[in-house]
Amino acid sequence: MYSVFYKLLPTKKNIADADIHLLNDQEIKSIKQTEKVAIFYSAIIGSIMVVALYVPQYKYATLFSTREFIVPLLQYKINISFSSLIYGNILVFVEVVLLTFLNIYCTHEIAISTGFIHKRNKLSKEKIEFLLNISHQKKNKEIHKLGINPYLGLGKSAIFFLNLLFAMKATLSNYFVRIIFKRVLGRYAVRMVLDLLGIPVFAFWNAMGTAKVLKESRIIFMGVNYIQNFEIELSKFRALSEIEKSILYDSLQYISISKRDYHQNHYALSKMIIDNFSIATESIHLISKDYEINLKSCDNDFKKLNEKILILGIVLDGNVSYREQKRIKKLKYSGVLNLKFAEIKKIANDFTFGKGIEI
Asked: Residue ranges of the domains in the chain?
């Protein structure tokens, strides 16, 4: 997928024709409406699937009978209904298919609104492949080939736990809601009522998932435009010294660590900068301890360029976290950044809805 993403950026031959598509009020309204409808339908799908899972099990209990099994060594007894497991997996498959088609359709509509797809390229195989992969929300791990790692400094167990927690968020939320209602209702906590409490929980997480997919789609489409425009600017910049190249490499790693996530825009920005300035990559790049000291000794034009790259890296995923807020304040205090957190936050918000990036 990610090689396809980078192919969608202009080459040196056609880079002069690159154009930024800013969204007007009508396009912004259209995108918001598309996202609201998609989020609503996503929540409805989650609600229906919970009802479809539990109601038949109560109405036709004999079809979902359980058998008792003893766990070897532990001698622990558990009741398992194989028909319930099969039926549940079928419903999960149906739900995934419905949500996937919903995400693909809405992603396509947003691609049109942002100007990513138009009459001249709507039949492009690369565009179609790109849209399908975005709607599936595949993580961009190609950035490792550049020696950049968002999880640098974190142990494997911490990364595994974070990913597991994220994957099971809906199930865990439903479990805690059941515990709370059991405590509140006591012996009045009927099992069927507790099971159906999953309706608002799974509806919420479905809606959140769809909202995230569509927001990310919009940001990626606009990111292509901004990155290709920035490449025009970089192509006119002077040659860099080896120290300056090392500082830029540090900045790219710094951005990635601050985000603690894989994002297509970060990969495209990093690859474009590394290729443009012919920066030698490493298997794993560690940020220099003298990063700020080396930067202070550089020329002003490079300091401004480095600052712009840092800000672009922060805003190109449309999100500025609390962790990044602390890092931005630290960078401003050390003189690496001149903009305040509120100013960078505003740039991110403007970018999210296609109002342009003004640094």
From this structure: 2-352
Q: For residues 309 and 222, what is the distance between their CA atoms, to the nearest angstrom?
A: 17
Angle at 126 between CA 309 and CA 133, to 5 degrees: 75
Do 292 and 307 touch, CB atoms closer than 8 A? no
End-to-end CA distance of the chain: 30
- Tell me if 83 sits within 8 A of 65, measured CB to CB: yes
Characterize 309-333 residue by residue with b for buried, 16 or more Cβ atoms within 10 angstroms of its Cβ, and e for exposed: bbbbbbbbbbbbeeebeebbeebbe
Helix (H) or strand (E) holding 71: strand 67-71
Q: What is the pLDDT of residues 124-172, one digit of tens each?
A: 666 677 677 666 666 767 888 888 887 675 655 654 555 555 555 556 5
Amino acid at 97: V
List, for residues 90-106, the tens digit of each pLDDT value: 988 898 888 888 888 88
- Give the list of residues 6+ apart from residue 176 with CB closer than 8 angstroms, or none: none
Look up the pTM and report it. 0.69
> Length of the chain, please?
359
336 contacts 292 by C-beta, under 8 angstroms: yes
Count of Cβ atoms closer than 10 Å to residue 24 Cβ: 11
DSSP 280: P
- Give the residue from 114, 134, 138 showing the smallest Cα distance to 30: 114
Residue 97 tokens read as: 């298919």
Contact 177/50 with Cβ under 8 angstroms? Answer: no
Strand pairing partners for 80? 67
Q: What gap in Å lies between CA 165 and CA 158, rounded to an integer?
A: 11
Residue 197 burial (CB count, 10 A): 17
Q: What is the dihedral of CA 258, 261, 264, 270, to 10 degrees?
A: 40
